[in-house]
Amino acid sequence: MRDILLPLALVAMFSVLVVLGIGLFSLVRGGTFRENWSNKLMRLRVLLQAVAIVLLLLTVWATQHSS
Question: What is the pLDDT of residues 29-44, one digit of tens each?
Answer without folding.
Answer: 888 888 888 899 999 9
